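Before relying on records like the one below, remember that each one covers exactly one chain. Contacts with other chains, cofactors or solvent are not represented anywhere in the record.
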Amino acid sequence: MKILKINVYGFGKWQDQQFDLTNGLTVFSGPNEAGKSTLRQFILSVLFGFRTKRGADRYLRYEPKNGSKYGGELLIENHDEQYLLTRVKGKSGGKLTITNVATQEVLANDELSNLLGSVDETLFNEMFSFSQSELAEVRQLDRDEFRKRVLKIGAVGSDEWIGLQSSFEKSADKIYAPKGRVRPLNKLLKEYDSLSQSVQKAANETELYKQYATDMNLNQTKLSQLQVKIETSKAQLDKLKHDLSGWDAYQKYLELAPKLNSHFVEISSDLMQAVEHNHQQISEAAQTLQTLQEKISDLKQKEQQNPRILFYSSHEQEFENIRQDLNKIENVVIQDEQLGKKQVEIDAEQNQIRRQLGIQETVPEPFSEEEFDQLQRDLKQKSERTREKQNLQNQVVELQDKLLKTSNPNSNNSKDKLKMSFSVIGFIIIILPWALSLSMGVKIGLLVLGLLIILGGWLINPNENKTDHAEDDLQTQVTSLQKQLQEITEQSKDVNERIQKFGVAKGISQTDPQTWLAMQNDLKRFERLSEDQRANQSQQHNNQEIIAVFNERTKILADWVVLTGSINQQLKNLADYFKKIEQEQKITHQNKQDLKYYQDRFNQVELESKKAKQAESEYLQKLSLKNWESFETAKKAQFDQEAMIGQVAQLKQQLGESTLTDLQHFSDQEEIQSQLHRQENNLTQLRDEQEKLVEQKTVLNTQMQQLANDETYANLQQQQANLEAEILAQTRDWLTEKLAAQWIDETLSVASQGRLPKIMNYAEQYFSLLTNKRYNKISFDDETIVVFDSDHQSSEVGELSQGTAEQLYVSIRLAFVKVMADLVSLPIIIDDGFVNFDSNRKQNVMALLNQISEEHQVIYFTADDQIDDLDTKSQVIRLK
């Protein structure tokens, strides 16, 4: 499995951050608090779940403090399939979603176990991840502790078994220790020795007892001698069993030993590394050239395939003019819209003025000053004549009342009633028109008619006798007043005719003349509005002509821009078009810059590739090899030879010199089995003889008990028997714990047997590389781990420097990953693990990581700001 991309939503200091990783070695470099450990914990959290909020685990949750979404994604590749692992805040380690990138199918969460090869976080940290703190502990490990770590690595899932083994050993140590004094079994054995001396003293009190004692001693001597024979037989039997179990390894040794080539010409490590490094440069250059060529072709194709840019380029100046005028046209459209709104306001205000004036047709122009003054004088004169006329009418009515009073009261009632009727009708006709909105001519005509009716009423009296002198005077006054009234009426008629003529001329004759003077302000406002209206219409006409000309210019873009709908929509479409053109021009410009960069880079890499090929040719010529394939063959042959040497040495170490010598005396496995059967039969005979001696001892012991003359001997024997039973029980418990621990140890050794030699073989190769071939062999003695240098001098791990001891542990860990790749392959994560390495060995470990990363992805977090100075082709990501 490999991690291709890291996408952090929110985790500690990281928010909305992405990192692309290579399939090989990726180095994250940054100072303290740059987020390296946070990023490492993010990877573990997505793979295995977020830590709980309890205890120290809460410090590894890294929940963002700014409210960002908690969690993120890992894009992984497993068996050529890509999966997106998404984990966000939720129960039981967070909500996990697994998506197959190719099919977009969301998989069950159980699929994660298949992707991880059933490796949990604890096992991952023990197998595929280590840090400086783990390396610092290696020098404090004794042989058994180191061996347990190797067994833990070699036997997957052995943590619980090793813990159980330690528990059994501690329990056994609490019961008995070889040099202990206070353990229960140690106390019982000491007490038994003392009690045995007391029993012996009591038993020697009689002669017969002494004889029996002599016989007992003889019996015991024979038993002891027989026990020696049994132990010897058992040792020979165990040796034969050991020889039989090592027969397969011995056959493998016999098969490999003749194949060792003593005349083998070794390619030096430095030269091999130089050739491989140079060839790696050639391969990387070829891959880089291919990638660059693809990018160059892609950029050229993009440059040729954009018809929009091609069309724009062919009319660039014309389109630039349109683009420059776009804001101007937008302002014209805005102005036209504003003029339209203003026109509506003008129309509304003009209509309001028409309603106020009561004019539905054409509104007249405002009065001139002369017309206004003349109208003012006429209206004033009309008002004065109306008042004079009203006064005369009142006087006429008053005189007529007097005439009525001076007339004969006994006169004909019908005559008086007729006169009164005519007077009332006349007055009504005179007064009523002035209360109605009638034309001046009509009013004057009705006035004359009313006067004539009144006059006629007084004149109608064919049979009337002449009135007396008083009545004549009154009548004369009435007549005079009526004459004056007629003159005033004539004058009023002239004034009214002038006013009416003025109203007709101005088109306002249908309105009340008394309101004409008040119209002047409205007429002036209406005239100003009309002038504004004409100016607006003229400007709108000009704007429409400008827009029409612009629309004609933009028709060339009809195939690329939608030029239908409102003018605002067309302008928006044009603006969007030019915006998109600008974006595409930027992209095109960037593509041109990228194209130049990639072409320059291509030429540079091509030159470097030629130099590397020339160097490879010189290297191969120096090695008398034809080509790279022949070098690979030679390298493989050397590795095979070295591996074979390592296997032979491992087999010799596994068998031991004595076993190897013994096995040389056997022709086949059947011969060993035959001797094994004979030895088993011999052991059976010895044990039968031992059983007979034990029976004799029991008889003698009974006879000795019978000879005791008091109860002292019996009591002591009973105490001795009780003590033996207690010792037996304690021994049984001790053996149970001890044998259980040994059984677990042997079982784990068997579980690791198939891979441990391979692990140690690769570990020796890696350790030799890291230490510049100073150390080339790793072995175990009774107490600790031992390494051998090129002069065959041995050193215990505690005698090594801290850096060298750490390099030993790194070699074993990386060897384990190499050997276990067929079972599970996960990324190797190293958190600043090479602090104590000098510059040369740090260069070596980076070369080793480069080599390992060809098959396993390696992610290395470091605070070393000189990482670029190391000779590595890794991807380096700087964290700040």
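The longest helix spans residues 567-622.
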